[in-house]
Each structure stands twice: as C-alpha cells, then as structure tokens.
C-alpha cells in the first residue's frame, strides 16, 4: 500500500506504486525500482554465462599478459562467439619429435586432473597430464604412469620430455591457443 501526503504538491510518499519503492531517510525522499525476479537457471542463460566465463578466463591467461587491452576485448568477444556456437576455445598442446611409439600431434584441453588441466590427442590414444607432485607426463592412460611414457620434471607444461618405460626420442611440447583472426572486429551493439 502506498501512502501519499499532499499539500502544495507531494510532501511525503512511502510504499510501492507501479513497480517503484518510495522511502524517506535523513537525506530526503528516495525512489527505486522494485527488483524483478529473474530466473537464472534457464538452459540458455546457463550456456551464455558459461560461454562468457570460459572466454574471459581464457583471454586473461598469463600467456597474453603482453597483449594490449583492445586485443583482450577482441579475444573475449571472439571466444564468446565460439563458445556459444560450441566451437573449441582454449589451449592446444603440440607434441613434436622423432618418437616411438608416435605420440606426436595436436592435443586439446580435455578437463582437469589433480587440479591441473589435462590434454588428449585428437585420436584419444595419448594424454598429457600432471601427476600431482612434480612432473608432467605423456601416457596412453590418463592418470596411470606405467608403460611407455615421457616425463617432464617441471611445473609448466611446455618444454622437453624425457622418454621412460621403453619409449624413445625426446618429445617437445609447445602450448598454443585459439586467438581471433587479424580481421576480426567486435560486433557493434
């Protein structure tokens, strides 16, 4: 219920009227819009929220610390578009070398294992993962450091991997990313 006191105009008003709250404090009369209840749980809203978070997190990575602010905005916009259309965004790892068995190729981000990202090769035969202690491993089975494998005793994924367990050849892992094309422009709203 709204209470309105008049006398040469409105001298006091309290309550709500037509989607607006009226209040008074020591600074005078105030009005504010009633908060509208929004269903935050629809699948479309969840997809958009997840796309934005994923794109923004990706573009804020330390790999891009030297990029200018306008590039970060372009990167975020481009990757929101990619995420909303179910296109891959994120990091790729590229394994090179004369390796036996052949574990070279492109690995996509596949999830997390022991609180770090892990990657799987396009054919899902090999994985790159953190062992939770001191090293990155390239193995055929995620989380199982047995059989043929390559190991890197360092906290970062990029670099040289030493063969173990019957593997041969030095593997080199390089981290790459999906960046916006040079001609990509942020859409005008």
Outline:
The protein is of the alpha+beta class and 189 residues long.
Q: What does the overall shape look like?
A: elongated
What's the multimeric state? single chain
Strand portion, in percent? 35-45%
Q: Figure out the total of helices.
A: 2
Please explain how this structure is put together.
The protein is α+β, with helices and mostly antiparallel strands and 189 residues long. The chain has three domains: 3-33, no CATH class; 43-84, no CATH class; 91-177, no CATH class. Helix content is 17%, strand content 37%. Helix 1 (43-59) runs antiparallel to helix 2 (69-84). It is elongated. The two termini are 40 Å apart.
SSE order and pairing:
Layout lengths: L2 E4 L3 E8 L2 E6 L2 E6 L9 H17 L9 H16 L6 E6 L8 E9 L2 E6 L5 E4 L5 E4 L9 E4 L6 E6 L6 E7 L12
Antiparallel strand pairs: 1-2, 2-3, 3-4, 5-6, 5-12, 6-7, 7-8, 8-9, 9-10, 10-11, 11-12
List the defining traits of the structure above:
189 residues, alpha+beta, 3 domains, 8-stranded antiparallel beta barrel, 4-stranded antiparallel beta sheet, 2 helices, 12 strands, 37% strand
């Amino acid at each position: 219920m709204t209470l309105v006191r008049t006398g040469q105009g409105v001298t006091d008003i309290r309550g709500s009227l037509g989607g607006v709250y009226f209040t008074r404090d020591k600074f005078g009369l105030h009005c504010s819009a009633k908060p509208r209840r929004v269903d935050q749980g629809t699948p479309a809203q969840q997809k958009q929220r997840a796309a934005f978070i994923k794109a923004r997190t990706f573009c804020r990575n330390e790999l891009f610390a030297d990029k200018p602010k306008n590039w970060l905005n372009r990167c975020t916009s481009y990757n929101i578009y990619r995420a909303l259309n179910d296109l891959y965004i994120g990091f790729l790892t590229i394994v090179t070398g004369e390796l036996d068995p052949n574990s070279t190729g492109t690995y996509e981000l596949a999830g997390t294992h022991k609180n770090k990202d892990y990657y799987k090769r396009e054919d899902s035969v090999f994985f790159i993962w953190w062992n939770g202690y001191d090293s990155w491993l390239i193995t055929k089975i995620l989380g199982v450091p047995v059989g043929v494998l390559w190991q890197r005793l360092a906290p970062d994924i990029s670099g040289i991997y030493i063969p173990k367990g019957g593997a041969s050849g030095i593997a080199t892992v390089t981290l790459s990313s999906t960046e916006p094309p040079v001609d990509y422009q942020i859409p005008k709203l």
